Amino acid sequence: LVTVWDATSGNELYVAKGRIDCSLDWSPDGTKILSGKECTVRVSETASGRDLHTLKGHGGFVVIVAWSSGGDKFGSGGGRGDGTVRVWDAMSGSELQMLKAHDGEVLALSWSPDGLKLLSRGDDLIVRVWDVMTGRELLSIEGYESQAVAVAWSPDGTKLATGSHDGTVKVWDAVSGSEVHTFKGHQGPVASVDWSPDGTML
Q1: Measured at the alpha carbon of residue 83, what is the angle toward residues 182 and 106, in degrees to the nearest 5?
Q2: Tell me, what's the pLDDT at 19?
Q3: Which of 3, 79, 119, 150 counts the highest number of beta carbons within 10 A?
Q4: CB 32 within 8 A of CB 45
Q5: Beta strands across the sheet bearing 95-100
Q6: What's the start-to-end Cα distance of the chain, in Å?
Q7: What is the mean pLDDT of residues 92-97?
Q8: Can you say whether residue 39 is alpha, beta or left, with left for phi > 0 and alpha for psi between -120 and 50 degrees?
Q9: 116 in Cβ contact with 140 (< 8 Å)
Q10: Are 42 and 54 in contact (CB under 8 A)?
């Protein structure tokens, strides 16, 4: 189920029952909630919990969903047996792109700040960058010996960060795919990465 809480009062606003959602993301303006379950992507109204769109197309469990920073598009990634990344129009719910992204599950997505490119990583040990307007693959980062667990685009759009099962965090040039930095020190998998708003810290 999905529960929405008032963060000030602590009151429960509503519960969407009968659903098993494995990924959630808020729209940038906070009026909608994006969720993924089984083979379905849902867009729900924050205030009431009413479903605005129920979108089907994935051939496997929807593992990850992500709203673009502009709020006009969102992406979803499918699990085993699917491996696609799908890009949707947030207003109409129409499918804009179906990208054959990875062999296996799509486990992370991150939008470029301008909303024109989408970063994906799968359990095939590959990180890819996509042009969401054309569906063209712009970049493929390979050579991982252990799986990249998390991905994040820098606020200025020039760099990509990945966190891996081997405990490292790597920074990459978003155009060339060349490795810029490798940070070591974690004793276990890096499950999440995020940039500071000014892009100076990770």
Answers
A1: 35
A2: 54
A3: 119
A4: yes
A5: 62-67, 73-78, 84-89, 95-100
A6: 32
A7: 95
A8: alpha
A9: no
A10: yes
